[in-house]
Write a structure and sequence with these properties.
Length: 145
């Protein structure tokens, strides 16, 4: 073993020894007690939505251009009971991705409360959900009015 490795080993042992001694020592009577954290109760208001069917247009920007989608959402007691999606893309790639989104979005939306829906990627489409969430924010506003 060379002297450099021996020195590193001794330093490591010394550090471990200090850590064990520090962590293992019991507090003396002169030490101040550690302050405890205060817990604040946080309440969140759940929005109330009127039952009904709401329509909205949502927008998002694809690499090609700005795109648009339309949704129709039916609410009962703040829960989505039905949803319809209409793709309005102009770009061919966006049309394909909107079609994929349309095939899988319902299972992510129907049966959920309006406030718990947070789509990011559906069937490989990551931009169409942004348009959906844009439209859904408009539905929320309309359903609260």
């Amino acid at each position: 073993m060379n002297s450099k490795n021996l020195a590193v080993g001794l330093v490591v042992v010394a550090i471990i020894g200090v850590a064990v001694f520090t962590l293992g020592s019991k507090p003396t009577q002169n030490q101040q007690p550690t302050p405890t954290a205060q817990v604040e109760e946080i309440t969140t208001e759940v929005a109330e939505y009127k039952d009904g069917t709401y329509e909205a247009i949502g927008n998002y920007t694809s690499p090609a251009q700005k795109e648009e989608i339309a949704i129709e959402v039916t609410l009962k007691d703040g829960v989505v009971t039905d949803a319809v999606f209409t793709g309005k893309a102009v770009n061919e790639t966006s049309k394909k991705l909107q079609a994929k989104f349309g095939e899988g979005f319902k299972e992510e939306v129907v049966g959920k409360s309006l406030d718990e829906i947070a789509l990011t990627v559906v069937n490989g489409s990551s931009l169409t959900p942004k348009g959906f969430m844009d439209a859904l924010s408009k539905v929320k506003q309309d359903a609260q009015s």
